[in-house]
Amino acid sequence: MKRTIKDWLIVLVLLLDEAAALVLVLLVLSFFNIRIPLWVTVVIALLLGGFAFMTHKVIIPSFHKKRVTGSEGMIGCEGTVIKPLTPFGVIRIEGEYWKAKSVD
């Protein structure tokens, strides 16, 4: 799946809350006169930012996933029969239970 600039901008916006949390922690520490060396701050910021970025990177494919709404969006999908279709029964599609009718 091709990633677009819009996708990456969305991920960067999602990372803003992590950056805000880091700034808040640094402000609280400076308020209590707790000094952390700059190199430690940079390393922690890079590690947390990298972890958050990789976590959000997993989200990008969901931006392009076809939205399924209602029973009309389920036509043609395959599911697992939970209650035999004689001719009505229950099936499970993508973790949801649906009433179904056999066409044969």
TrEMBL record:
Keywords: Membrane, Transmembrane, Transmembrane helix
Gene3D superfamilies xrefs: Nucleic acid-binding proteins (2.40.50.140)
Residue ranges occupied by any NfeD-like C-terminal domain in the UniProt entry: 72-102
Organism: marine sediment metagenome
Ranges annotated as spanning the membrane: 9-32, 38-59
One of the Pfam families matching this protein, by short name: NfeD
Name this polypeptide is given: NfeD-like C-terminal domain-containing protein
